[in-house]
Design a protein that fits this description.
The protein is built from 12 helices and 12 strands. It is an alpha/beta fold. α4 runs parallel beside α6. The relative contact order is 0.14.
């Protein structure tokens, strides 16, 4: 199988690529990574795999239909997995337009190029081809404490510019399946965490700020609840959906780990107290600082992943406790990776988002 991964130098995309290329007995002949390398794309995430003969990197935009068409033809692509997205909620609040450009217009142009390529295949190849779109639970909106978790039938009700742009991309993928017959699949995931997570996000931000002795900024009362999914579990789910998912279907992928943001921060502090204690013996919890909540902050997300469990036999391997311990260990071992980003790309004084 030859696959094209868009946004493969970002957090989830690079973890997916690493998993596929490092897994023994992988059926991949070629993996092409198309990434624009914006602030969240980082070639260091895959630097140790650059010499793999199956791996091809191409810097570029999913909105460049000519480039996408060339890559599809040149590498005889059998499946496209679309990870490419602007995904930082706070940035979408500051400036919504880039999110529409990438997540809506970019996805449309990607679909255009893929449809033309797929239409020109012979019948057997057309039937085997897949387009998998990676999306988010934020398209469903927010939940009250007593509400049931999001299912694949939950109506869309996005509350941030980011979520609205992802909802738009999801609708486009559905429309290309219904109108043109393009063999599509969609996954909607809960909050990911793990290695190579961009330091602007909640969990890496808290780890790195704590180690630097900086404040740990918690939005509002810290009671916003998220369902936390270890990124390698998510990558395994995506591969399973690509191989066995029913065409045109959406599969929700969750970690089955609902936690309030404040509880996540306390757990991280306890892990760091044990693994990298402060010189003065005080707990990292003393660094917790409450800051003004962000506009329109959703209170709760939760994923019902019964469908992917029942149809495809997937379940997360990591509990929140085991996954978070692995994540802390990774950041303690890879400070240079994070420091390079924070020193050259942006200031970590920017608050971490909940997603």
């Amino acid at each position: 199988m030859n696959i094209l991964v868009t946004g493969g130098s970002g957090f989830i995309g690079s973890n997916f690529i690493r998993q596929r290329l490092l897994q023994a007995g992988s059926s991949l002949s070629k993996l092409v990574n198309l990434d624009l390398l914006t602030y969240a794309g980082n070639q260091e995430n895959l630097a140790d795999l650059a010499s793999d003969s199956r791996y091809v990197f191409q810097q570029g935009d999913i909105g460049n239909e000519e480039l996408v068409a060339r890559l599809l033809e040149e590498h005889a692509i059998d499946a496209v997995l679309n990870f490419a997205a602007e995904s930082h909620v706070d940035r979408s609040i500051d400036s919504p337009e880039p999110f529409i450009q990438t997540n809506v217009t970019g996805t449309l142009r990607l679909l255009n190029a893929v449809r033309r390529y797929w239409s020109g295949m012979d019948q057997t190849k057309r039937e085997e081809f897949r387009f998998l779109h990676v999306s988010t639970d934020e398209v469903y909106g927010t939940l009250a404490p007593e509400d049931p978790a999001f299912t694949e039938l939950t109506p869309f009700a996005p509350n941030s510019p980011y979520a609205a742009s992802k909802a738009g991309s999801d609708h486009l993928v559905r429309a290309f399946r219904h109108t043109y017959g393009l063999p599509t699949l969609t996954t909607n995931c809960s909050n990911n965490y793990g290695p190579y997570h961009f330091p602007e996000k909640l969990i890496p931000l808290m780890i790195l700020n704590a180690l630097d002795g900086k404040p740990l900024p918690v939005y509002g009362d810290g009671q916003q609840i998220r369902d936390w999914l270890y990124v390698e579990d998510h990558a395994a789910a995506i591969w399973l959906v690509l191989q066995k998912g029913r065409l045109g279907e959406t599969y929700n992928v969750g970690g089955l780990n609902e936690r309030a943001n404040l509880d996540v921060v306390h757990t991280l502090c306890a892990l760091l107290d044990a693994k990298s204690p402060r010189a003065d013996g005080s707990s990292y919890e003393t660094l917790i600082t409450y800051v003004a909540d962000r506009p329109g902050h959703d209170r709760r997300y939760a994923i019902d992943c019964a469908k992917i469990q029942a149809e495809l036999g997937w379940a997360p391997c990591e509990s929140f406790e085991t996954g978070l311990a692995k994540t802390v260990d990774w950041y303690l071992t890879n400070r240079a990776w994070a420091d390079n980003i924070t020193q050259t790309r942006y200031s970590r004084e920017r608050l971490g988002s909940a997603k």
